[in-house]
Structure formats: structure tokens, C-alpha cells
Amino acid sequence: xxxxxxxxxxxxxxxxxxxxxxxxxxxxxxxxxxxxxxxxxxxxxxxxxxxxxxxxxxxxxxxxxxxxxxxxxxxxxxxxxxxxxxxxxxxxxxxxxxxxxxxxxxxxxxxxxxxxxxxxxxxxxxxxxxxxxxxxxxxxxxxxxxxxxxxxxxxxxxxxxxxxxxxxxxxxxxxxxxxxxxxxxxxxxxxxxxxxxxxxxxxxxxxxxxxxxxxxxxxxxxxxxxxxxxxxxxxxxxxxxxxxxxxxxxxxxxxxxxxxxxxxxxxxxxxxxxxxxxxxxxxxxx
Length: 286
Ligand SMILES: [Fe+2]
Description:
Shape: elongated
Helix content: 10-25%
Bound molecules: fe (ii) ion
Oligomer: single chain
Strand order of the largest sheet: 3-2-7-8-9
Number of strands: 13
């Protein structure tokens, strides 16, 4: 391990990890070293560029906390999140396609009853959500846990609002006896991912926009089934073909049809037009 140079240092580093007892860790570290060294040899960074990369990653970590996850954003805009998702969800017919978790999921969302309104009076076009949860093979899944979360009409999530209590436009429901779930919300809007940090710097330097098309997030778990993490996107959104995190799938786009003012499906009186989402989810056995 002396006189190492650009031609033999990769082998020396691989050799230094050779005794790693955890075989999965050994596989990962070996691949990391080979690809990372290959990357460095490919771009031949100056020392200043190496230092910039260190500072970029340092800022990414320093910006991350319980309400902001800059590392997930970095993974998202590099397409890594969707690549990991694709590798882990090679799904058959009948199973709902998956997409990114995103950085705005909150694990302790309030438990809500069917029919409740998660918008708590927030401005926006009312949305009545009617979804059904079933196994990919068809049978209904009662008592499935359904987390929902979305942006408000200004394009912000509750956790981005300094004045909120962190629990608006999100909630945790349980499906009914036929796997059904009904609730009110507002129609989600397109929004930019937070672009005031290193990920935003990267997007600006690359002349990429930071927008995501409007969508409603779902995380659905049921005993004996793989947890489904997905969104339903609003058809017609201008960003459907340039989602900055590469998360759009055709089967996850719905028209959210507009309905006239009047009486809603549950008897609620609506003074203005509202929209409706009908969707059926199919879960894979675990
Ligand atoms: Fe989102």
C-alpha cells in the first residue's frame, strides 16, 4: 500500500474492504468504490471542484432536518428516487404503479373519519375523493390504512408553512368494509420543489425548472400486502411531461372531472363548481 497512483489506487481501496463480513455491505462498498473512482477518472476534477462538491454535500446535509429533506430532493432531481422505485416495483397487471415518496410525508398525520375534509377550510376548488382499495387480484381490502397529503392552492405543503401546526391537507384514514374511502379536500396545484438550497442551485445552473405537476399523494398499507406509495396526477397540468423528479406515469393521471354547483355526493351543499376523483388502487401481496 505504497506509491499508489491513479492506475492502482482503486484496487488498493477495494482490497482494504475485502474482509468486510457483511456480504451485502461488501457488494455495495465495492460497487461504490469502482463507480466513484470511475466517475472521478472520467471528469478529472480540479482541487477547487472537489472542494465545491464537498461543500455542496455539506450544505445539502445542513439544510436537512425533520421538516426539510434536501438529500431526498437531490436524489429526486437526479432521477435516483424513481430508479430505486422502478427496480423495487416490477409490477404485474392489476397492481397500481408506484412513484416517489417525496420530502413532505409526515408519519404522525392525524387519524380522520371517512367523509371528513382534510382542507380545514383552505382556499381552493373543492374536491370529493372516492377511492377503493383492493388486492391486485381483485378482492376488496377493508381496514387498510390510507395516508393522504397534498399541496395547498399556493403550492405549499403544511410543513413548509411556518404559521401552521403541520397538519393541514393531510390525514390518515381507514378503508370501509368494501375497501372504500370517501373524503373532501381541495384540488391540488402544481408547485416548485424548494429551490433555495443546493438542489435549487443545481437546477438553475442546468436551466431546469423546479416544478412538479399537481398531484395528490397516497400511501396505503394493509396486512399481508406491500405498502403502496403513489400519487394521482391531475390531467392537463403543464408540467406532466417535465416533472422535475421524473415521477409521472400515465396510469396515475386522472381527469378530476368538474361538477356543477349544487348538492355533492354526500349531501354537502356546494356554492361553486367542484371536482371529483374516482380511483381504484390494487396492492401486491407482501
Ligand atoms: Fe407532492
